[in-house]
Design a protein that fits this description.
- The protein is of the alpha/beta class and 385 residues long.
- It is 42% helix and 14% strand.
- Strands 1-2-3-4-5-6-8-9 form an 8-stranded parallel β-barrel, surrounded by 4 helices.
- Helix 8 links the parallel strand 3 (125-129) and strand 4.
- The longest helix is centred in the last third of the chain and has 21 residues, at 300-320.
- It binds ligand G3I.
- Ligand G3I binds next to loops.
């Protein structure tokens, strides 16, 4: 059997069995449930079309999304949807190094300020993303940057937003843990090549010297389970805590891919949430989206239901661990990063535009209409204790 057919066959079984064992796929034979719980759930479902920010606030939580300034300014319907649904927002690229300090010591904040102004007008909190990352930086910045470059950048950018009425938190550092053990020269913390733990400690100390009134997060992906990476991430959080630096939260990006490469480890995810709570570093969901990779279900309807079930299952786990902030990486499939050819998963999609319609990771579709995923998120907030 040719490799590709064998892969798909294996992938099909693995993916389906993984989803079934994870309880992410409701079995078709589930009978009608007329219990009082179901009636109560049905009653609350009447509020399902309430804004997600309102349902979140009712439980002392926040819901928001990554937003792009370029769409905010030219797409009124998109802007209105953000204002209706979000109580927190993360600029997609406008607060990254390449946008804020394109030349050494020359700071530009127009695009980020426009987003901050929109947030002020609509009572939306702004989450700063990010001061230190191996991507989203101008060519003149090496990785890792020198301490002097870091100090100038942090003072320039955090200083600009020190008195901001909306910006309340920063991803001080993003994705500092390598993707695998052969991409690090630091066995304990698994940091990307060239990055020393002391540099990250000093980065957090510099940030606190500029503005200690914001919440400071360490943000990463691929830590949504018991993995080599999450183990190193947690060790790095513990190192920072033991070094006495201010670290308030851990950003769990949560770009969840269901494929043979990335099943969901519920037990491991719970252990990550528990470890962070034990360290008194709040778990924050910073970039949530649910991407279904090949082999795909045979209809958009089935795919949307898979996505919805996964949102509900994942958020139930988050809220059981007292997570109070959920940010999806975008609000509508219209602008999802995963449809951008540069970021699209697997060659299968990249070389096959007919599959792009299956990339539907967010609560609202490309026509800004709510999908089952939106109802699932609403229900998770409603049922949060
Ligand atoms: O804004 C310019 C536009 O004016 C220009 O015409 C266009 C030409 O290509 O580029 C636009 O900038 C793009 C920017 O997204 C728009 O916000 C950049 O080229 C593009 O590289 C950039 O990609 C972003 C990427 O981070 C790198 O910054 C993606 O949209 C964004 O979704 C992605 O987000 C990352 C998080 O920051 C960290 N976690 C992973 C996540 C997904 O990769």
């Amino acid at each position: 059997m040719p490799y590709r057919r064998k892969f798909l066959k294996r992938a099909g079984y693995t993916t389906l069995s993984a989803l079934l064992t994870m309880g992410f796929l409701q079995k078709d034979n589930q009978k009608e449930d007329n219990s009082t719980n179901a009636i109560a759930a049905n009653n609350t479902s009447k509020n399902l079309n309430s804004p997600l920010r309102q349902l979140a606030a009712a439980k002392g939580k926040r819901y928001g999304a990554a937003i792009s300034g370029e769409f905010l300014l030219k797409d009124k319907d998109y802007a209105n949807l953000i204002a209706r649904e979000c109580s927190i927002a993360t600029p997609n690229g406008e607060l990254k190094w390449d946008a804020t300090e394109p030349q050494p010591g020359k700071f530009t904040f127009e695009s980020a300020d426009a987003i901050a102004d929109f947030c002020r007008k609509h009572n939306i909190e702004l989450h700063g993303h990010t001061l230190f990352w191996h991507m989203g930086k101008p060519d003149w910045v090496p990785y890792p940057p020198t301490l002097q470059m870091i100090e100038r950048h942090v003072k320039g950018v955090m200083g600009h937003y020190r008195n901001s009425p909306v910006l309340k938190s920063w991803d001080i550092a993003n994705e500092i843990i390598a993707d695998s053990e052969n991409e690090t020269d630091n066995a304990t913390y698994g940091l990307r090549k060239g990055v020393k733990p002391e540099l990250i400690r000093d980065l957090f100390l510099i940030a606190a010297s500029v503005d200690k009134n914001k919440k400071f997060y360490l943000n990463d992906f691929g830590i949504e389970g018991a993995t080599w990476k999450s183990d190193r991430f947690l060790k790095m959080v513990e190192y920072l805590k033991n070094s006495g630096v201010k670290i308030d939260g851990a950003g769990i990006q949560s770009h969840l891919w269901f494929s043979t490469a990335y099943g969901f480890d519920e037990k491991g995810f719970n252990s990550v949430l528990k470890r962070l709570n034990d360290l008194e570093v709040k778990p924050i969901i910073t970039e949530l989206d649910i991407i279904i990779d090949t082999p795909l279900p045979d209809s958009i309807k089935k795919l949307d239901q898979m996505v919805a079930d996964s949102y509900k299952r994942y958020l139930d786990l988050c809220f059981a661990a007292k997570v109070d902030t959920v940010i999806t990486w975008g609000l509508t499939d219209r602008h999802t990063w995963i449809r951008h050819p540069r970021w699209m998963p697997r060659k299968t999609f990249r070389n096959n535009p007919s599959l792009w319609k299956f990339l539907r990771p967010l609560p609202f579709d490309e026509n800004l209409q709510p999908k089952p995923a939106c109802n699932a998120i609403a229900q998770a907030f409603q049922q949060a204790t």
